[in-house]
Amino acid sequence: MNKYIHNFLKYRFLLRELVVNDIKIKYRRSVLGILWSVLQPLMMMVVLTMVFSSLFKSNIPNFAVYVLTGRIIWDLYSQSTLSAMNSIVGNASLIKKVYVPKYIFPLSKCISVLVNTCFSLIALMVVVFVTGVKLTPVILLLPLPLLYTFLFASGIGLLISAYAVFFRDLQYLYEVLLTAWMYFTPLFYPMDIIPDTILFIFKANPLYHLLNMFRDIIMFGRVPSPEQHVLCLAIGLVSLGIGFLAFYKRQDRFILYI
Prior knowledge:
0% strand, 258 residues, mainly alpha
């Protein structure tokens, strides 16, 4: 473990440069630049609110905040894993030329998305104030569900980035899976419309628990219970552990396939 920590610290500057470069490339030649990280979730919230408010607004207080919190957690996960998945193949030329810890590449993608998510929180605060949601000191716990979601996304990102080197079709299969996964995550509908007979499927979704913690803090000012913290942290750490082990076992063969 000391070896891996030392190796990570040795290449931390490369990690930082990769993150900065990702953010620069994303907003290169964009007139509004990084402001899109604020505007994009706001526009998605407006669209989803217009479409679904007539169906669910009577059941959900502060529907706009409910939708936006769902989008922020979902985008953090989905964008992290999608960008991490092709990070090894996308950096093939660099990997072939010099030695670099290969996990740096998917990890940098996840960190880049996390940075953009932090900008999206500005949009969330704007909507919170406009809709009159009461903020409490519990808001200081907001980084925790984001951290747990980041750990979960990083683990899945490492896992699928390792397999995507050998199975290029994984990208298309994963996109289909994400679409189905999104509808099994309560982003814009209340959980009380789900029949009891299939409720266990939704509760088996890790993002369900991460999103609940995020909404409890923002919308209801509830301090997450110790059980919530243990569960969400376990989700993140188990995912990260599985992803790292799968990545580590396959990384020596990457050079043969990229």
